[in-house]
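Following the same procedure, the fold was encoded as tokens, giving this record:
***
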Amino acid sequence: MKLVVGLGNPGRKYQKTRHNLGFLVIDALAKEFKVKLNKIKYDSLFGEGWMDEAVILAEPMTFMNLSGKSVSKLIKKYKVDLKDTIVIYDDLNLDLGVLKIKKSGSSGGHNGIKSIIEHLQVNCFPRMRLGIGRPNEMMDLSGYVLSNFKKEENEKVSKMVLESVNALKMIFKDGIDKAMTTYNKKLIKDKT
């Protein structure tokens, strides 16, 4: 069984913000595989489906800074191995449109990942980082991540969400190593 968690903030107010990229990917994946996100339990909105194996798609309803509360409850309830838990989130340290898959790592200053690491007491779970770039010096980080994408960024965001869905399908079918080789390398090449 796999658990795929997209990080974001609940509520219409945050729906299209940079911080909700994880939710956008979960919504796209749910649509692709006809999984209904209609259960609210364990501090999450989630649905269960079948890709190459049983998969739970989840969006924590705890707000970003408390994501670990939801993720730890889902892992315990469904007895999902950490290597089969994939967390998707926005990353200020990557340019907009860049996707990076990792098997483990630090929080990199991301409060949602920090919360997950604190609740699980480990940092060895796969994650997909989605680049949102950094704001100019005039805007604070909090205001930036909670801002909507600009109209001229929407095409890049849509492509990144699509690439994320394709990368997740590859992880399910061929494993994380192949997805890392394919998508991390490809997107670095695309930037040059």
About this structure: The longest strand covers residues 44-50. Residues 47 and 141 are 32 Å apart (CA to CA).
